[in-house]
Queue: 4 jobs
Job 1
Amino acid sequence: MKVFVNGRELEVSERISLLDLLGLLNMEVKAFGFAISVNEEVVPKSRYGEYILKEGDKVEIVNIVGGG
């Protein structure tokens, strides 16, 4: 199925979770560092493993940068 990650189309398997998607993208879940929204709704890190993507979902992965 097709999903969009940061505006790029990506072909993934059916019933893929956000956690599985991060693995495909070689990203590790850490306490801090990035946030994910699906269709403009933020998904808590505690739900990455259970959140199943659907055809056409728009996933945005945003790096969190501190500064002052």
Note: Helices lie at 18-24.
Job 2
Amino acid sequence: MIVLIVTLTINPAIDRTITTDRLVFEDRTYILENTESAGGRGINASRVLHSFGAATFALATAGGDAGRRFERYLQKCGFPFELVPIASEIRTNLAISDRQGLTIKLNELGPELRPEEVARIEAAVLRRLDSAEWLMLCGSLPPGVPDSFYASLIRMAHERGVKTLLDTDGPPLRAGIAAGPTVVTPNQQEAERLLETALVTRTHALRAAERIRRMGAVSVVLSLGSQGAVGAFPDGVFEAVPPPVQAVCPIGAGDALAAAFVWACRQGSDSVDALRWAVAAGTASATLPGVRFASLAETRAIYKGVETRRIWEPSASGQNDR
């Protein structure tokens, strides 16, 4: 079977999500729901892709009692996966949301990986590239993994004609962009850290997306939360603005955005239409309680109300499409 979209989650987690009636300081609040699931950006992306009907294969690490629970949760997701065993316990992340959409997210750093474990993960990715059209590199790198890890995988994927999406933060994001990913999908905070500047206005965000593209990425989708997203592509800079919605829980909306962009590209959409689908998926998922992801039907309903427009023509950046 040809696997079209491979996701990598090198720093997965048990995601514990608590929904409360309200989040306030110095007063009690009541827990309405408490759930656990297999988490990590790549795992979430595979969930969305699978629900949209795309063929996806998830690669992740697993270790300890949490890793065994992680595997049991994954087995219920419906898509194929491979877990690379590691010696240490994988992390547990905690998210607390209230019914008004206020969210607090507390993430552990993750276990330190040994060099031989990193090598096994790289080998697992390489085994899957021959049957992949896209490789999605998602989430943080745990301690012990070099900042250049994603960059190396991007170069290996390009050598095999596989398109790449990079969704990470900090030094791995900077190094990965320099390797020339097909698309990079930072959110506003990640872009601000990358560029070492605040993005206060829409113009700031538009120029930031083009700056990131000039750093090496072929395309950039800069997520702005409830304000939509900016896309910097070889044919120009665009913005996509969603219709007004009532956000309930924004956790995972960025993962849905990244997955929907790749899904739309696989469906034959051009970059601007893929941007529109991406914003629709992120927006629709943010309207759901807990860490839940919108179905294709729910995403399509929002897609109809997403407006896109070209902001300016492409500039001479000297980049080649990949």
Note: The radius of gyration is 19 Å.
Job 3
Amino acid sequence: MKYYIIAGEASGDLHASNLMKAIKLEDPQANFRVWGGDLMEEAGGHLVKHYRDLAFMGFLEVVKNLRTILGNIKFCKTDILTWQPDVLILVDYPGFNLRIAKWAKKVGIKVFYYISPQIWAWHSSRVHGIKASVDRMFVILPFESDFYEKYAYHVDFVGHPLLDVAETKPKDPDFLTQNGLSPKPIIALLPGSRKQEISRMLPTMCSLQSQFPGYQFVLAGAPGIDEKFYTSTLSGLDQAATVKIVRGQTYALLQHATAALVTSGTATLETALFEVPQVVCYSGNWLSYFIARRLVNVKYISLVNLVLDRPLVTELIQEDFNTKRLKVSLQEVLSTEGAAQLKAGYQELKQLLGQSGASTRAAKLMVGYLKDS
């Protein structure tokens, strides 16, 4: 069968690539045409658009790049019609994918959605559009099933795919030497995957380095972001030259990290599953944040706290994200008591997220639904 898959971010590229591998086991003749990244291409997909050309963060950034976004949507529709897939599989990335889903349903293309848009966080009325446009929804967070049931929409909870990554990735004993790192304990920096958020988050994160001389600060380079961008962002900062950059090895970095400073998003959950004490950070364009505050209806910005429904990890948002507050919060998670409290909470989190094997369960369900139809 022919599968057209759209993922618009690094995390979507990872999860979609694992889904593709699992689909191949169920459907050896599977043919993939994809929007995503290197991992999806390596998994056998014909890559149409790379996600680095699709990532726009915040309301203002979307408005400024509206012509490009609309052009991508138009091209995507034409490409899907030309290829005529058996199913369109959308992976997260709601701003783009929900538009495509609505159109695809109208032209008679079957639509599956893997990793639900976070409509439970804001603009919940979009659930009605999803019910009308998406044939099957596959969710990865435990509370999402209950959310959709309130709207009489049955979805499949398959568990979180990050559990597979955290449980199966072996620790590389040569990681430090291969990357020119010292034996000092590591503070991992995960400033995000988009240029806009990296520019806002990274300088403040790095400003702590001189205040923690017993640690080395190591930056997780995001796929699709050139190293020159990081060096230019850090230029002029004290000790910026001593910040090491590790590319394409975020999980290996987390396995060796003592603590982490993490921009809100999927990375907060990844860090928790690798059991690394963390401080969650967020600073956005003031107008984008002002608008978002009035639309979002959740108590927390980190997935860790959302799943647990309590404030396990510290969240430093907007004006609270500053060197002074960040230093105090990092000291807390580095303490024996603070680290132990976080790691205990992480165990509870893993139980709530279900068992490993999300990609396999999703693939079996998807191929089964397609064969039944």
Note: The CA atoms of residues 255 and 274 lie 6 Å apart.
Job 4
Amino acid sequence: MKTVIKQLTEAFGPSGYETEVTGLIKTMVEEYVDEIKTDVLGNLFAIKKGSQDGRTIMFAAHTDEIGIVVTHIDDKGFLRFGNVGGVGISTLVGNRVRFAGGAVGAIYQEKGSWKELTIDKLYIDIGAENKEEALQKVKLGEFGIFHREFEDLGDRLIAKSMDDRVGCAVLIDALKKIRNPKNTLYFVFTSQEEVGLRGARTAAYGLEPDLGIALDVTLTGDMPEARRMEVSLGKGAAIKVKDSSLITHPKVKDLLVNLAEENKIPYQMEVLEAGGTDAGAIHVTKAGVPSGAISIPTRYVHSPSEMVDIRDVKACVDLVVALANKDLTSI
């Protein structure tokens, strides 16, 4: 599973440009599903059919990552840029970015900007000596991602774009383990979550599932002087209670808790004060969809060095597998 996480996190896939990621996922899952397709927004659907008396479950994990977009190139070849998604400004200085064509650059700050660091005080140096040379490497309006490699620290893993390639890895591993599910399962690898839950909204509208479950990262409260939050690395799958986009349907929350306890899957409860997931879009689709989220505890979210614990990742896989065969007539 670590190999899958490494492949996915090192792939290029800012919001709106997820095709490299979805192409990788397609090759990983196509032999394990009954049908696979994409839609106009770039969502990838991997479908496992259930029995006739089963219900339909939409699992959603987003393929896009936060990034940057080039807004200006000056005469000396330095790039100015805007954010794509919720980029943490304090994590950028000294970091590197990579563009689809392979160009790599370093982010740095203007003199004195440490007093009040904003994105318009930052620039990217791609090693060009002038504007003409820069334009041979990068175009105006081109999207870039943070350039960081995957690191295996044992149980702990670090990479850029764990948000939400680790959620995609959970669904991929679960797909391989589910043989003949009772329920029809729509594993949707969604697009453009970081800029407004866009792919999940259109996907859910078309599928009209009986139940929606997002697989995404969540914050932790286990670092020095961290925000007080009862989620930690290594303590299991996080079952969402609420976030800014969703109050988990009580029956869905209870279902996930009961499944975790019945199957001896380590879990913890997640109350996220700010932030959201694809479930925020799914649950208000059409006449409404009972929805919740299984979250992967992650340190340093929206930075180029996001950290997860492989034991939590495996607990999330086990919870997805347990849900696949659950009788959902009470939902």
Note: Residues 162-177 form the longest helix (16 residues).
